[in-house]
Specification:
The complex is a heterodimer of chains A (about 110) and B (about 110).
Chain A: E1 3-6, E2 10-14, E3 19-21, E4 23-26, E5 33-38, E6 44-50, E7 56-58, E8 64-68, E9 73-78, E10 87-94, E11 100-102, E12 106-111
Parallel strand pairs in A: 2-12
Antiparallel strand pairs in A: 1-4, 3-9, 5-6, 5-10, 7-8, 8-9, 10-11, 10-12
Chain B: E1 5-7, E2 10-13, E3 19-24, E4 31-38, E5 42-50, E6 53-57, E7 64-68, E8 74-78, E9 87-95, E10 102-105, E11 109-113
Parallel strand pairs in B: 2-11
Antiparallel strand pairs in B: 1-3, 3-8, 4-5, 4-9, 5-6, 7-8, 9-10, 9-11
The chains are: A mainly beta (about 110), B mainly beta (about 110).
């Protein structure tokens, strides 16, 4: 069975500093991996996805993630955050039945 | 193109009542999934419909049900509401072909049971 572990529940970061959100997955089949962002009182917005091919995936708003099969990780990074990046971030894996398994989420708090 | 539309955005119901939530997927998407989000349990899969057939089901009691219409719009119903059903209910429509594969979520319906 597939599962997702987000290693940090909360990440405080200063504006213009880099941020990395860690995600590890377990899967016995080919993986499709996703990062979503959720702003207060909103749904989930797709940041990026890995389906196949290049292990470095670029997404919206300057985010990127690297798929590492040997370490079963899919960490999300941004080189310089803005106040507007304050939100909750979810890593997800598509399981063999076609449904998404989500991690518990990482709350990013950006301060000036 | 238009995104995923969920109605209503907010709902307050009394214990024991039933509720119906609606989701209109992106045009051309035939798969609609429903998720429940709560602070304690996080995001949990409810069920998925594809071409009017339930394709997947999560571990929720039978009080939670859904259906999909021929135009791919989906509804979920919760009967005999309990306080613990208070949650954000999210709907996602998905494209299952090629590079466009992915799940697009609506803004959700916030259900409060009092």
């Amino acid at each position: 069975a597939q599962s997702v572990t987000q290693l940090d529940s909360q990440v405080p970061v200063f504006e213009e500093a880099p941020v990395e959100l860690r995600c590890n997955y377990s899967s016995s089949v080919s993986v499709y991996l996703f990062w979503y962002v959720q702003y207060p009182n909103q749904g989930l917005q797709l940041l990026l996805k890995y389906l196949s091919g290049s292990t470095l995936v670029k997404g919206i708003n300057g985010f990127e993630a690297e798929f590492n099969k040997s370490q079963t990780s899919f960490h999300l990074r941004k080189p310089s955050v803005h106040i507007s990046d304050t939100a909750e971030y979810f890593c997800a894996v598509r399981d063999s039945w076609g449904k998404l398994q989500f991690g518990a989420g990482t709350q990013v708090v950006v301060t000036p | 193109k238009a995104g995923v539309t969920q109605t209503p955005r907010y709902l307050i119901k009394t214990r024991g009542q039933q509720v119906t939530l609606s989701c209109s997927p992106i045009s051309g998407h035939r798969s609609v999934s429903w998720y429940q989000q709560t602070p304690g349990q996080g995001l949990q899969f409810l069920f998925e419909y594809f071409s009017e057939t339930q394709r997947n089901k999560g571990n929720f009691p039978g009080r939670f049900s859904g259906r999909q219409f021929s135009n791919s719009r989906s509804e979920m119903n919760v009967s005999t509401l309990e306080l613990g059903d208070s949650a954000l209910y999210l709907c996602a429509s998905s494209s299952e072909t090629g590079a466009s594969y992915g799940y697009t979520f609506g803004s959700g319906t916030r259900l409060t049971v009092v």
